[in-house]
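not sure who needs this but someone in the group chat was asking about AAA+ ATPase domain-containing protein from Edaphochlamys debaryana so here u go. i didnt clean anything up, its just raw.
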Amino acid sequence: MRLLAAGIHDKACKELAGRMAALGEQVMTLVAVDTNARLQEVQDVVVAAKALLDRVALGQDPSAEVCALVEQTAGWQRWWPWGSWSRRLFWGKFPRELEQTLPDDAQAVKEICALLAEEGRREALQRALEQYHPPEQLSVWELHMAFNGDEALLPQIRRLVDGEGLPPLPRHYAGREEEAKALTEALQKRSLLLHGPAGFGKSSLAADVAAQLMRSGAMASRALWVDLREAGSAEEVEARFSAALGVQMENPQQVTKCNAAARILAALRGLAEKAGGDGGSSSSAVAVVVVVDNAEDALVQPAAAEALRGVVQKVLAEAPTVRLLLTSRIPLGGGLAVTERHVGPMSPDMAARVIQAAALDLTIDQAARVAAACRYVPLVLNLVAEALAFERLTLKVRRALHKEALAYLAVFPSAFDVGAAAAVFDFEQNHPKPHEVLSVLHQYGVLQRADRQQRYIMHMLVWEHVAKLGAPGDDTFQHRAEGRFVRHMLSLLRDWADDWKRHSTLALAQAQQADLGLLFELLQGLTLEHGVDVAAAALDLTDKVADLLAALGLLQQMRGPCEALLAQLESAGPGAAELPPDVEKAVASVLYMLGVVHLTDKRYAGAEAATQRSLDLRRHALGPEHCDTIALMSSLASCLQARGRYEGAEPLYCQALELRQRILGPEDPDTIASMGDLAGFLKIRGQYAEAEPRFRLALELGQRVLGLEHQETINTIKSLAGCLQARAGLDLQPATGSGCDDGGKLRQRGLSEDQRRQLEEAETLWYKSG
């Protein structure tokens, strides 16, 4: 408000202040007409608040000087798109100003400052915290995810710094020192696969080895953790690598097996170069270690196995500064040059040490007998050690509650946080809070930390045991848990979809692809026992959700869910006289999604029929100028365009753009998308002169609103480049390799000056788009 009250915004702000003052006087008049004691109290509060605001207004206001400085340094347009000031503000004051935040813990602040005195550790902490937002931002949500209030700050920061990118080791992890040392030495020379049965500690051992490589200083300076649990398709494998690398997936229609692996390779090489390796073939020093956990889930599915092996092959051949450390219950196969190391049970002496360290009152002989009963299997040893350390027998009163909690949590196919757990729990109000339940289960050892964020995961053997025991209570327990999971995931989908064009939102969604896969499966078989309102679930499948799923490469998986939901919603038959209003809107929503799925699958007749019917329903239920109705105009235009019916597509594109400009404004992302849609249509029709200025305007607005690195902006850059090529009468492909300059000169021979300019600009745009 202070910035608004100065410079170019001064007049507008004063007018606003005047209207607010007049409104305040009206409120005071209304309050004064009644002497009722309650109204008198309200009047006292209003007077006190007004006096307080008056005192604040008298304070010295430096905003005029701020505005003048900004105007002198290229104006607001130069500074507004860049949010790096907030990031610099935080990191510039952290950790030294913790003394003000934690005045009663000066020793802890001193130790934190000493820990982060080295620049490399500060940078490691920044990378560990900035998980989902672009580098210019640091969100409160990220801080919330990284730290919990149940533990002192110093050990949490130390774990983030020392094990950046890796999950924390179990509390009683021990007994593998020599094995870890040997694997660390071997990993410096070649990539490895840790192969062994479930529960034998492959994941913990891999995290330990990767952390040792990082702590060595002279070796790897970056680590990535790629969890392939429940990754049963090529798209999911790519999504897990993309999420770990923080890169956005491309349109699945444009991605082949080769270029998906190439994109991952390029990101890994770039990371290796930043981490100290040259990213190319001239160096064999380890710069980045990538742990690929639970590889067996991908290897048992042919398409996913081929995708994984493709990535491994690319990295082995073209990224010598990157080391892969895979864990799997089955061999990798494919004849790849990855050394396999078998992981077996612990030695009896080491196993006894683990038990005795957890229960100090046990003799070494007693600990040895306990270890023998555990068959020296690391997971079983850890569970027993945690139980002994936590004095399990004193908690019998809550044992039933914890069993019930585990049964609820078994619905998650991958990692979950406190919010997700709270969504599926069905406890009475007097029960412990969700974070307390998770904390106890973690201390028992039945839950593990999935990463350095506040997320948990259930080991696969524990999950299988819980599933085998079945749910407590009645036969509908499992269905109710699944129903709550469905409602939770649909809510998340809508939240993500409302802001899906941000890089951080896509990163969040990519990290939960296993959950999305289960959601799609459950939507195909909803029953009354699930307790899910089918119409409400259908309404959650908004147009923006379709856009989000397309960006994630998951849209085609929605065909089954859409057909199942439609069958339930139209149980009276699609020819019923009239549907209830809520059901009518729900049917329209599902039909829209189904139309987009058909269009993606190139079933154009089915796409047009579903989209036309959805548009008719929305016009009736929502009106012709509702945002959802306008979205269907663009979608129907795309269907007509795909079928070659250009005369019907063009007026729909134009109408959608005109309505969005008038209703949403010219800088709304949907308006920019409509502008790009119309420009693309004109380009396909060969009307390059009309398409080019529209592409340029869409690009200008996209850079300002979405940012240069957003996929929509990159797509617009490529489209503009293609338009310029076409105007020059060329079949341009971006030049690669050492012959780039010569190829450019050859292509320019015999061209007019205008054609040469267009060619040069097109090449520049191609390279700019990456």
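also Residues 391-473 form a domain with the Arc Repressor Mutant, subunit A fold (CATH 1.10.10). if thats useful
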